[in-house]
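hey can u run this one w/ zinc ion bound, need the C-alpha cells asap thx
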Amino acid sequence: MKTPNHYASFGLERMAERRNDTEWLDAMFRAETTVIWPLWRAKNFVRPGEEPQAVTLTSREARTLVDAGAELLFVGLTHSVAHFLIDLSHMDEPSRSPILGGRGEFVELRSVGSFMSRETGGMLAYGKAITYWHSRHLFCGVCGAPTEMREAGHQRVCLSPDCGISHFPRTDPAVIMLVSSGDRVVLGRKAEWVEGMYSTLAGFVEPGESLEEAVAREVEEEVGIKVANVRYHSSQPWPFPSSLMLGFYADALTEDINPSMDELEDARWFTRAELAGGGAGIDRRPRSDSIARRLIAEWVDQE
Ligand SMILES: [Zn+2]
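ok here u go:
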C-alpha cells in the first residue's frame, strides 16, 4: 500500500455516533489525558522557531475558556485519547490571554505544516478546515437567519423556526495532475509564487463533471494541451482553505503549450533529467507537504 499523503490518515477514530452523546462527550472532555487544540480565525496555535511545535491545552485550561464563550468541537480519538478543538475566534488577541500568553502564536498552517508529523499535521489541518467552514456559515444560506453549531461541531442548524435547515461541513474537490509525454512533463507557474517555482497544474471540479473530465478540461484551459489515459494516484486533504486534492497522471496527446495568461505566468516542458537535479532543472520545487511534490518525485523515480 502507498504511504498516505501529508495531512491524511493520521489515525483518527471520528466516533461520529457519539457526537450527540453529551454525557459521553463531557466525560471525554474531563479526562486527564484529553488533548485540546486551540484555533483562532482558522489559524493554528504553534510555538514558532526553526522547528515549530504545535501547542495544546489540557481540558482544565480549556474549561475556563469555554466558560468565557469559546466553542468546543469534538474531533475523535487517537490511541483511545480524546481530542477536541477550542475555537477562540470571538477573542481579539487570545495569544495574549492569561492561559495562552507566552506559549505560542496563531499562525497559518501553510507556514508550518511541512514541519509537523503526519499525526500533528493532520490534526492541525482538520482543525483549520472545520473552523474555517464554521466561520463562513454563521448565517443560513437559504433564509439569512443565524445558525448554531450542533453535533459537537459537525453541523450547523438554522435558528429560524420557519426554515431550520441543517448545514454540513463542505470540502471542495480539486484535481491536480502531472501531464507527461515520454520523458517530459508539463509544469506551470503562477505569478504570485516564489521565484523559480514550477508545479503541477490544478483546478476545481465543476458541477456536473467527472474527475477525469475535470483533469482534461483544466489542462486544456491552462496550457492548451489535450490529454488521455487519466490515472488516479492518491488524494490529500488541503485546507487552504477547504480543498480535497485528487492527484492524477495523464498522457499528453499534443505538444504545443499555450499558457492561459489568466491563470499562469509560464508553463513549459521539463525533462526527467532536469527534474532529477543536475543544475538545469527548476529552481524551486512545490512544498514538501504537497501532493504536487510527490507526483513529480514519483514520476522522476519511475524511469
Ligand atoms: Zn434558514
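The helical segments are 22-30, 59-67, 109-112, 118-135, 211-223, 272-275, 291-302. anyway lmk if its weird
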